[in-house]
Amino acid sequence: MIKHALILAAGRGLRMMPLTSTTSKAMIQFNNAMLIGNSLKQLVQSDLKTISITVGYKGAELAEYAIKEGVHNIFNTNGKGNAWWLYHTLLKQLDEPLLVLTCDNIVEIDFDWIFQQYQQLNSPACMLVPVQPVEGIEGDFIQHHNGKITKLSRTEITPIYGSGIQILNPKKINKTTNAVENFYEVWQQLIAKELLYASETYTKPWFSINTEVQLRSAEKLYKALKNES
Length: 229
Prior knowledge:
Organism: Kordia periserrulae
Distance between the termini: 26 Å
GO molecular function, one term: nucleotidyltransferase activity
Radius of gyration: 17 Å
Keywords: Nucleotidyltransferase, Transferase
Number of domains: 1
CATH superfamily: Spore Coat Polysaccharide Biosynthesis Protein SpsA, Chain A
CATH class: Alpha Beta
Low-confidence stretches: none
Protein name: Nucleotidyltransferase-like protein
Strand content: 25-35%
Domain Nucleotidyl transferase: 5-133
């Protein structure tokens, strides 16, 4: 089973101004809770061994909230890229699967399914979880052969793109790549060594929030799904 998880929550959220003028993107209100709360609540309830987050802009406020909610580790990555922590924190020594999420994902996390997919691919250094593209939401389109990713592109359209959900082994990545700060650069190194994989397409409802319009749309979608259930 997955025992460790991390939420990337250090982003400035400039595309969500003025909502992020006084608070971090992760702390924006979403359906009477915090945006990060959608994923964080699921992680806490799953009884993981460790839950970590990265913080940056308005990090003290976010860290205080996260600790109260049950987060074990806070990594201050202010001014750093989204993959900096992978090479420069204690997590680099972790030789186990680590579930990595973004704070702006609104999704039901199927821990068992994700882990089973990871095992079926022989526990690679990194596995991205793709979804079918959603109109208005950008993503890295995935080209692959038998699960092994051969190319990521923002312009060459395919039936799937990255969801922002991935499962990786930090120690394996540190052994096979050079330290970089951006995940796209991590993935490119892994592709060159044929070590980046994609799971089957995730079928549960998924939404990523980068603008206020997307935030309002996600709130409506979330409420509709709750009413259906």
